[in-house]
Amino acid sequence: MSVAIRIIPCLDVKDGRVVKGVNFAGLRDAGDPVELARRYDAQGADEITFLDVSASAEGRATMVDVVSAAADQVFVPLTVGGGVRTVQDVARLLAAGADKVGVNTAAVARPELLGEVADRFGNQVIVLSVDARRCPPGVSTPSGYEVTTHGGRRSTGIDAVGWAVRAVELGAGEILLNSMDADGVTRGFDLEMLDAVRRAVSVPLIASGGAGRPEDFVSAADHGADALLAASVFHYGTMTVGRAKEALRAAGHPVR
Hints:
11 helices, eight-stranded parallel beta barrel, alpha/beta, 256 residues, 36% helix, 12 strands, 27% strand
């Protein structure tokens, strides 16, 4: 039997509140992170992801207190990212109740971090978060997509597909592929980018950025996503986790 497609609500946290914008900008308040986590747990979410969206840009640690409070009240796996720079940061988050830890900016700056974490905790703990966009004028990569860091604020010129491949070789156990171009636009996932990364890596692949309708989840699953992450459609009541799963089930994809 095929592995079930996972639905993962994403809580972007800034200053202790959940926020959401478009293309990583124009952030507006979406609620209390622990309350929202409880809601999605009750709706049947398979996992919940917390991303401290300003941690790397502001040079501070991830919000351990939010993670700890959520872990006490929800019963699905938690992935936490933002501001993770060291093995010690990972250990702190796991001790607070996280099941997996997402890394982006620090791994680009020092790729050895992925191997260090994998050696200590196992690669199932590491989710490489790739904030990617179509190359802007003046930037060229083999795949046509580049990696950005610091919450999408900085261009790197690094090829997104090549980086995903290298990260898996170093120890990443899962890839969270977030399309900056599609983020918050609710016009569907970037299927071309998803295809490019899916062809290149065999680890579980989470599609992120652009979900607006139940059909968008189905399309991403059709293109090889193992999990589907969304934020605004869930936060603002456009859709529930259950509705997304109904669409996947109706299209023949296994869900929990």
